[in-house]
Structures are given as structure tokens and as C-alpha cells.
Amino acid sequence: MDWKLSEEFVTQDGVVRWDRRGAGEPVVLLHGTPFSSVVWRAIAADLATDHEVFVWDMLGYGQSEMRSGQDVSLRAQGRIFADLLAEWGLVRPVVIAHDFGGAVSLRAHLLHGADYAALALFDPVALAPWGSPFFRLVQEHSAVFERLPGNLHEALVREYVRSASSPGLAQEVLDELVSPWTGEAGQPAFYRQIAQADQRYTDEIEHRYGEIALPVTVCWGEDDEWIPPARGEQLAAAVPRSELHLVPRAGHLVQLDAPGPVLDLVRRFLSRHAGHVRGATRDS
């Protein structure tokens, strides 16, 4: 279950860990919350056979720095992502984003000038209202939840993450997803990112989805209980010339629930837009 991000990018609020695998046309993968880049491991490994794949853990997530006082909001993550693309020298990569990563990629594009050859959104946070009753309860009382005994906190996070999968997660996968959120740094970081998850950061851009001119595909797990597939239909209707694909027998963690179908969707998407990706680095 080894997944190490070997590179660092320093931001004003801490260090972001990232890595690249393979060679070829660039593809960037974005994770959501409360996850990390590890959710893309199987997809990244396959794509790296003929693409240069960039992965990163958002600030305050996974292997990136977690500390008190950080701005880990969608506002900060969108700005960091635009800065990362510049750091990597990527001008028009293909971007594939999940959950909060969808909002991050949309904010970077619409507010910070990040350009993509194409954008694939998997079960993204993009349309109001969002946030489950559990999410909102924790958000309103994050300081209380942060003081939970460690074993109760871990049990809560474990059940929360488990609910993102429709067929269920293997024990070692569940352990890996939960692990970053435990301990002295991880427990407060879990509640910090929920406390800062403000819907206004998608409200700021939702009315601009009609401006998006790049190729977009929207993919959704048919059994997603976190964000219903009907939101996928709404988003596809809001983004001009976008497509909607439903993934059977998959919940919110669609790339873990149905890696084969997701990889097929990604491969078809990349092959359709491969000609637009050439020359996507500053050095080319």
C-alpha cells in the first residue's frame, strides 16, 4: 500500500507534497475531502505507462503539512493549484478532479486563469446546496468534535469515509484513508478542513459555468449517497457542450468502487482530446 509523494511546494500556509510519474502528455489528478491523492493510485499507475501524471495532496490533507492556523479553504486550494501548474510549467494539461478537487479546478480556471486542454469532473462539489447533515453538524461544532477522545474520533472518521463507498472498501484501503486524520496533527486537521468548507466558494463561480469553453466531461457514481447523481445532470446542463456519464455500482468514491469503468472513461476522454494536449508545457 506504498504511496509516497517525494516533492515539496512551499506555500504561505505550509508545505504541499506532490509527485509525478511516467512520461508523455501531462495529466493532473485532484482529490477531494476527506481524502488524498492516494484515491487515484490505481488510475495514476495505469496512466503513467504513457502519460506524465501529476498528483498532489491539498494543503492540510494526506502527506501535506497540517498545522494550526492554516487556510485550507477552497479559496486557498484554488490559488495553490494555479501556482502549482505554474511551478510545474504546465500551460494546458488535461485535469481530472474528484469531489472538492472539482471545485478547486473550477476556481483555478475561472478565477486564476488556469487553462486546461480538457477537464473531467468526478462527483464534484460544484453546485449549491452541498454538505450532508453530518458535515454541517460537524462544521457548526468543529471545536467540540476536535476535543473527542482519539478512539472516538477515529471511529467517527472511519464510518464517515466508509459511507462514501457503495460496495465497501477493503480494510487496508479504509485504514489508509483514515490514517492521515488521526494523531495530534491529523485530528484537528480533519475538523479544520470541515470548518473552512464554505459554500460561498462555489457560489462565487457557479453563475460562471456557462463561460467554460474547454471540453468537459462529468462522471458520477450511480449510487453516490453523498452527492446525488441528479447534481451531475444539473452540472452537465450548466456547462456548455459537456457530457454526463453515470458509473454503475459506484458510490461517491467512484475511482475506488469501479476502477475499471473509471479508467475506461478516462482513457476515452484522453484519446479524444490528446491532440489538444500536445505542446502543453512551457518548454515545448
TrEMBL record:
Gene Ontology terms, MF aspect: hydrolase activity
InterPro entries to which the protein is assigned, alphabetical: AB_hydrolase_1, AB_hydrolase_fold, AB_hydrolase_sf
UniProtKB keywords: Hydrolase
Chain coiled-coil ranges: none
Chain ranges of the AB hydrolase-1 domain: 26-259
Pfam families (UniProt xref): Abhydrolase_1 (PF00561)
Name by which UniProt lists this protein: Alpha/beta fold hydrolase
Origin species: Lentzea rhizosphaerae
